[in-house]
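QA checklist item 7 of 12: single-chain prediction sanity check.
[x] sequence parsed
[x] length recorded as 146
[x] structure emitted
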Amino acid sequence: MSTPENTSKMTPAPVEKSDAQWREELTPEEFHVLRQAGTERPYTGEYWDTHTEGVYQCRACGSELFTSSEKFDSHCGWPSFWAPLAEGTVRYLHDRTMGMDRVEVRCATCDSHLGHVFEGEGYGTPTDQRFCINSVSLRLVKADEA
């Protein structure tokens, strides 16, 4: 029988929980952003101006989503990344709420709201994309703690 060499890189099983279960595990602010697609106020989150090396995980399920290598200073008030950690770690939804036409970014494992992705803003990043992610949606695991 053949098995993967590195099981830590396998796609995690989808996480399905009721709203009641999520409410027990998350703070009210985390629940509002992650489960109800809310947004934290700009320049108030824990990671908007962090330059610490490490991996950013989904705060709800722990899936690895972004790394500090793709993080950049966009000066928008939220953490910005030019790409996710790997293909398939996030999923995209067309979002027409609040009178806007944009692309929502969700965790592919637990379907938690992370933020939005914007393209063509001229930041000069390798992908010309800005993944604008709520700090409350993330947990940073520092490189020296991994």
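[x] summary fact logged: Residues 28-36 form the longest helix (9 residues).
[ ] second reviewer sign-off
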